[in-house]
Amino acid sequence: MTARLILVCHASTAAVRAPAFPADEPIDARGRERAAALGRTLPSVERCLSSPEQRAMQTAEALGLNAVPLLALRDCDYGMWCGRAYDDVVEREPGAIAEWLRDPSSAPHGGETLQSLIQRVGEWLAGENVLRRQTIVVTHASVIRAAIVHAIEAELPSFWRIDIAPLSMTRLTGDGARWNLTGIEG
What we know:
The protein is of the alpha/beta class.
């Protein structure tokens, strides 16, 4: 049996619309409505997982899923930038933003490096590939980008070249040894 993952990005939030570095904020009304509509189209799967953060858990609920929260699926830790507008950070800390975007091993915000995010997600994916289950996962754009980079064995800086929209679905299939990206919708 093949492992199949449908990675659903959480619904829109105030931070997504700003844009801002996320805090643990709720989804907005529009996101809740769109998630409910999407939920009616999702296939049946063996299990559902979610990031433990509020925006992911609320999205799973709006999708009609009984998702089990998993710490490995949490968003990237943006440290002292959490909750701040991206433009504000660029204006006040241009060198720090430039370093963070250039160097996957840096974390000038005091949180998690891009390198460690991709490693964390890759370790989780390795375990999922062995299980060979069909799973829907509700998580964050950063986690989904990390999963894609890991699955296709891309260079770490390519993380910044992948756009993941709220409520988009990314499909991965695994054969027990490796993952393949089979589609992105939305």
